[in-house]
Specification:
ATP binds at residues 91-97. Residues 319-449 form the Mur ligase C-terminal domain. By secondary structure, this protein is of the alpha/beta class. Helix 13 crosses helix 14 and helix 15 crosses helix 16 (465-476). The protein contains 16 helices and 22 strands. It folds into three domains: 5-63, 3-Layer(aba) Sandwich (Udp-n-acetylmuramoylalanyl-d-glutamate--2,6- Diaminopimelate Ligase, Chain: A, domain 1); 78-311, Mur-like, catalytic domain (UDP-N-acetylmuramoyl-L-alanine:D-glutamate ligase), CATH 3.40.1190.10; 322-476, Mur ligase, C-terminal domain (Protein-Tyrosine Phosphatase, Chain A, Alpha-Beta Complex), CATH 3.90.190.20. It has helices at residues 28-33, 44-53, 65-76, 95-108, 137-149, 161-166, 187-190, 193-205, 224-230, 284-299, 304-311, 340-354, 375-386, 402-413, 426-435, 465-476; strands at 13-16, 38-41, 58-61, 85-90, 113-116, 120-123, 126-129, 154-158, 174-179, 214-218, 236-241, 252-260, 263-270, 273-279, 322-323, 331-335, 361-365, 389-392, 419-422, 442-446, 453-456, 459-462.
Length: 477
């Protein structure tokens, strides 16, 4: 079973479906030439052509190619999705951290897990590269099948708005669904916030399957109430947060919160009791991530005490407020923040950490090319409002001119009083930001996080913010 003609081998079934970037029906001939014995297509024209020109090749016409891919793949692979309890998380920010935290909690009590997310994929103890946040259904099911063979009983997935709308997760039975937050992003694809929200809400309605058993929703987010309405088909609704907000109090809330660099603590008040939570994760945003993951772990049968014990042993997620060690007296952090809201949260956290010593926040960021252009000045404004120095640079410009992107973001920075340095070359910009730091300052290198490449008009080149920053620090030392 393949949807990519390049991977077809003799005896395979090829699913030809219309996509966003290309039409798989254009590659039917290539698939047949490579030995495909049957083709499933969502094009009547392609179907009729197959029946007349390739009488020895089986042909099936379907209305929706992606749904067919999911249903046939599940059948061929023996329905591995039925052997795993699936927890899925969606939202603009926090998906990756929440997924990693939940998997760690489940593993802490001896459960074997599958994890599918932005940074990497886990099949038990095996770590694989993740080409997409949420792969096509055939690939998801293959990972699930490998997980079942490895003894997995749990699966944790990030579900992006693209995947939910495109039905890449069609037919997956979700047991626990989590919503982190919703802020402007991906409008280049969805067009409006209403459509973006509707894509996220599909997780709680069920995508080709029954609605989740338990919905875990951030009550503090302005879209939380709308998600709660979308989750009407779920058996239970669990809300988490800090306080009374948007007409009610979250059931699972953090009280007596203490935030310090490398140390977070709070009392987790739940309908099942209260437990003290301590973690090395930093900042208010990670309290939300901990709350979401902890609720899901509780829904999956862990006790409050087991969750609290696991929280104390959690490690930071790569590229999420990742600190680069140095002996120079200032802090350098790499983070994936690539929306104005995420950038604002990151800078706010940094501002809290330097407040007592009166030090500065230096923020380096860029905006991605071929993506929502309206968020560029918003990101510039967010960076300028919270930072003492902004270093504006390039971040995956793709097919666009890097300086055009930079100038669009610069509009927002100039609406603030922050000093700004523009440097198109990202490596040079990182060096500028770090060399500008003094004792006590914090340098934020935002946008790429765990990514190891820079995507340019002429192709993709290796680039690692962590490695570049570490090299600059070594040179200074």
């Amino acid at each position: 079973m393949e949807y990519d003609s390049r991977r077809v081998k003799s005896g395979h079934v090829f699913v030809a479906m219309r996509g966003e970037a290309t039409d798989g029906n254009r590659y039917i001939e290539a698939a047949v030439a490579k030995g495909a014995t049957a083709v499933v297509t969502d094009s009547r024209e392609a179907y009729e052509k197959l029946r007349h020109e390739h009488v020895g090749v089986g042909a099936a016409l379907v209305e929706r190619g992606r749904r067919a891919l999911a249903e046939v793949s599940a059948a061929v692979m023996g329905h591995p999705e039925r052997d795993l309890a699936l927890s899925a998380v969606t939202g603009t920010n926090g998906k990756t951290t929440t997924a990693f935290l939940l998997e760690a909690m489940l593993r802490s009590v001896g459960r074997t897990c599958v994890l599918i997310g932005t940074i990497e994929t886990h099949v038990g103890d095996e770590v694989r590269v993740s080409p997409h946040t949420t792969p096509e259904s055939r690939d998801v099911l293959e990972i699930f099948a490998d997980g079942v063979k490895a003894g997995a009983t749990e699966a944790v997935m990030e579900m992006s708005s693209h995947a939910l709308e495109q039905e890449r997760v069609w037919g997956l039975p979700v047991d626990v669904a989590m919503f982190t937050n919703l802020t402007q992003d991906h409008l280049d694809y969805h067009g409006t916030m209403e459509k973006y929200f509707a894509a996220k809400a599909r997780l709680f309605e069920g995508v080709g399957s029954t609605p989740p058993r338990i919905a875990v929703v951030n009550h503090d987010d302005e879209y939380g109430g709308l998600i709660e309405k979308a989750a009407i088909g779920c058996s239970e609704l669990w809300t988490y947060g800090f306080k009374k907000n948007y007409g009610g109090v979250p059931e699972f809330r953090a009280e007596n919160v203490t935030l310090q660099a490398g140390e977070t603590s709070f009392d987790w008040k739940t309908p099942m009791g209260t437990v003290e939570m301590r973690s090395s994760l930093t900042g208010r945003v990670n309290v939300y991530n901990l709350l979401a993951a902890s609720c899901a772990a509780l829904a999956r049968g862990l006790s409050l005490e087991q969750i609290a014990e696991a929280a104390g042993k959690l490690m930071p997620v790569p590229g999420r407020f990742e600190t680069i060690a140095n002996q120079l007296g200032f802090t350098v952090v790499v983070d994936y923040a690539h929306t104005d809201d995420a950038l604002r949260n990151l800078i706010s956290l940094a501002r809290e950490l330097v407040a007592e010593r009166g030090a500065r926040v230096i923020t380096l960021f860029g905006c991605g090319g071929d993506r929502d252009k309206t968020k560029r000045p918003r990101m510039g404004r967010a960076a300028g409002e919270g930072s003492d120095l902004v270093v504006l640079t390039s971040d995956n410009p793709r097919s666009e001119d890097p300086m055009t992107i930079i100038n669009e973001a610069l509009v927002g920075v100039r609406e603030t009083t922050a000093r700004c340095i523009v440097e198109q070359d990202r490596a040079a910009a990182i060096e500028i930001a770090i060399r500008a730091a003094k004792v006590g300052d914090i340098v934020l290198i935002a946008g790429k996080g765990h990514e190891k490449v820079q995507i340019l008009r002429d192709g993709t080149v290796p680039f690692d913010d962590v490695a570049v920053a570490a090299e600059v620090l070594r040179e200074i030392a």
